[in-house]
Amino acid sequence: MKKTxxxxxxSASAALASAADIPLWPEGVxxxxxxxxxxxxxxxxxxxxxxxxTLVPAAVDRPNGTAVIIAPGGGYVRExxxxxxxxxxxxxxxxxxxxxxLTYRMQEFGHPAPLQDVLRAVRMVRSxxxxxxxxxxRIGVMGSSAGGHLAASAGTLFNHPIGRTGAALDAVxxxxxxxxxxxxxxxMEAPAAHMGSRKALLGASPPPEMVQLMSLEKQxxxxxxxxxxxxxxxxxxxxxxxxxxxxxxxTRNKVPAEMYLFEHGSHGMGMRDNLGTASAWPRRxxxxxxxxxxxxxxxxx
Length: 301
Prior knowledge:
- With 301 residues, the chain is an alpha/beta fold.
- The chain has one domain: Alpha/Beta hydrolase fold, catalytic domain (Rossmann fold, 3-Layer(aba) Sandwich), CATH 3.40.50.
- The protein is 33% helix and 17% strand.
- It contains nine helices and eleven strands.
- An eight-stranded mixed beta sheet has the order 1-4-7-5-8-9-10-11, with helices on both faces. Strands 2-3-6 form a three-stranded antiparallel beta sheet.
- Helix 1 packs across helix 2.
- The longest helix is centred in the N-terminal third of the chain and has 17 residues.
- The chain is globular.
């Protein structure tokens, strides 16, 4: 297990250093502004002004057609791309899944720029499904921490007008087919809110209606996609209540969901060893994906 994780980490670092990006907005970024160069250091990305996707293909002979867009966390201040982006993508590739690591706008732009980026990512991947060799009906979004908030935003606000920019791709569905949320930020309301993410996304004194809109437990409907939630009691940054609130909302709306709450594991645990049963979360996630038919290989024609 340790050798496997070391390989994934080394591969993640190499991918981060040499990644070739697919621009999300080739026609021009909405609300573009000059904020200086993008910064990439020690596995983190910050100061993003040109959102992009990085393709990590399935590493098996016959990819199964499932795709996952991955939103790394970092409090809407930076993105832990190596640990919560490429590491996950390399693991998913061993399951036959094609991944796209999302580099999205953050505090320099604020709401609704990150939402526009993740919905544009879903639309772009779905519109180019044949090119990428994926099933347009098997596209999920995975996110950690603030990236989990962004993923959950995609799963609840995919039809909201603020997610559209007037581009032709707005006609393509932005609804993910499933969500995988790792210790996600969900609510923007005290006492469970992660106030750093709230301030970076919404500002120091956001209007109440914006807080309500981006408290995603309040935005769940029966159309929200099936969801996997993973969190720990030991998380001292984003309280476990965030996942519980979202799971309760999913249950009320009869949305298929599973939730694993572990005793050990600090916030941002990624795929670390020595965290008790929490270190086995990738196995639980694989089981969930397999049970939902997301790892089935298409039959040859």
